[in-house]
Amino acid sequence: MGLFGGAGHSLEIAKRLSCNGRLIGIDRDDAALKAAKEKLKEYGNVTYIHDNHDNIKNILKQLEIKCVDGILLDLGVSSYQLDEGARGFSYMQEAELDMRMDKTQKLTAKDVVNNYDEATIANILYEYGEEKFARIIAKNIINARKTKLIETTKDLVEIIGKSIPRKYQSKEGHPAKRSFQAIRIEVNDEIKPLQNTINDCIECLAPEGRLCTITFHSLEDRAVKNAYADASGKCTCPPDLPYCVCGNPSKGRIITRKPIIPSEKEQKENSRSKSAKLRIFEKR
Q: Which pTM value belongs to this model?
């Protein structure tokens, strides 16, 4: 039995499980689930769940499933969401500031930029986007919204563009890239629950079952790497102690000491795969 969070790799997994087994597809984006259902319409062994992979324990409990043989977590925003301009994820297309993966939730990107205080916005841009000009951008967002609400992606892109010195704009890609990533992460709460989600996924595996996690930026990858290390039994004692007293138990082993990255061929065929990293953990 296999489980995936995100619909992008569902077809290949369904093919592998077509003889026997069950595939459970979880996605918080209902549009992604509809796309997966169309792609997998010839397979009768797939269960579709509109929910967040952070709730994996409750989902499996409701399905009366004790454990699964494998889990694939495909983190972050999908190509479909980026390409669907109306969703407000892309800084390349004008749309209402939304950025919700789950359209049923209340918090949107518009709420973040128009209602959060300056310090909070600056912290979000710096922590989630690693944006060196976070304070300037936050200050200019506050000043801009005094005149009128910041309602579209274009409005936000213009504010960011005016906040970053021109000499830096051509060196590190589109000037709005990091800020849009940061606001998207805040809207969808992508980082804070990740440690617990990894732990829950490992606990939901059968013995020798594997958790495969694909990340697309350094914050996600760092969180997954640390969660895997803790799950493998990494000592958490202070470094000045002469011997280990934490007794941190091992839940399994890390299969990939270094992350698996796309081949040159794949990166040429799909430029968005360049930042992808795959890490694998096997339960004891």
A: 0.89
